[in-house]
Amino acid sequence: MDEANAECVVACTCEVAGTCCEAHFDTLGCDDRRCQDCVCSFDQTCCADGWDGTCADIAGTDCHERCNGCGPSNCCGERDGPGCEDAACQACVCNVDNFCCDTGWDGSCVDIANANCPSTCLCSPSTCVGDCNGDGTVNISELIIAVNIALSSRPVSDCSAVDQNNDGEVTVNELILAVNAALGGC
């Protein structure tokens, strides 16, 4: 059976492949063909040697649109109304604060997703300093929010992504990182 798995990763279904969002070494590839194809186009070793942490990271970043449940969801940014689209993340956050599921998904809910539920919510707040809404880019309005937070005109919860070191304030160094992300991409 090991030879069959090695020779026909994509075609054979000899063993159930593991999830695309997490590392697993007992099978090659992952359980979602569309996601697997995307990840393996970035790194062929994911389908030849094993689905390691790098493969899971690619699923959550470069291929998150094809890999359901991998990478950031709308739970990683403020939104109107209660709850969010990722049931596991929502449950984790709401176990800490019912407000998030009863009233609204505000900055404190995003902070809980980052601080209390990082492995469930996969928000990765440090990947793009200044990306307030979690869309993978930093735009001018997000930079304005960041500056206003640094000037104490707005609370850090308005854009926790600009507070890279999670110390509750925004410094000039963090503003520079946000500007660099706006200019050069995340």
Summarize the structure.
The chain has 186 residues and is mainly alpha-helical.
Question: What would you say this structure looks like, in words?
Answer:
- With about 190 residues, the protein is an all-alpha fold.
- It folds into three domains: about 1-60, no CATH class; about 75-120, no CATH class; about 140-185, no CATH class.
- The chain is built from ten helices and no strands.
- The protein has helices spanning about 1-5, 35-40, 45-50, 55-60, 85-95, 100, 105-115, 120, 140-150, 170-185.
- Helix 2 (about 35-40) crosses helix 4 (about 55-60) and helix 9 packs antiparallel against helix 10.
Keywords:
single chain; 186 residues; mainly alpha; 10 helices; globular
Oligomer description: single chain
Radius of gyration: 19 Å
Largest sheet data: none
What is the helix tally? Answer: 10
Residue runs with pLDDT of under 50 for 5 or more positions: 4-13
How many independent structural domains? 3
Helical content stands at 40-55%
General shape: globular
Mean pLDDT: 81
Number of strand elements: 0
**Whole-Å distance between the termini?**
42 Å
Strand content: under 5%
Estimated structural class? mainly alpha
Helices and strands, in order, run as HHHHHHHHHH
Q: Could you outline the blueprint of secondary structure elements for this entry?
A:
Blueprint: H1 2-7, H2 33-42, H3 45-48, H4 53-60, H5 87-96, H6 99-102, H7 107-115, H8 118-121, H9 140-150, H10 172-184
Helix pairs in contact: 2-4, 5-7, 9-10
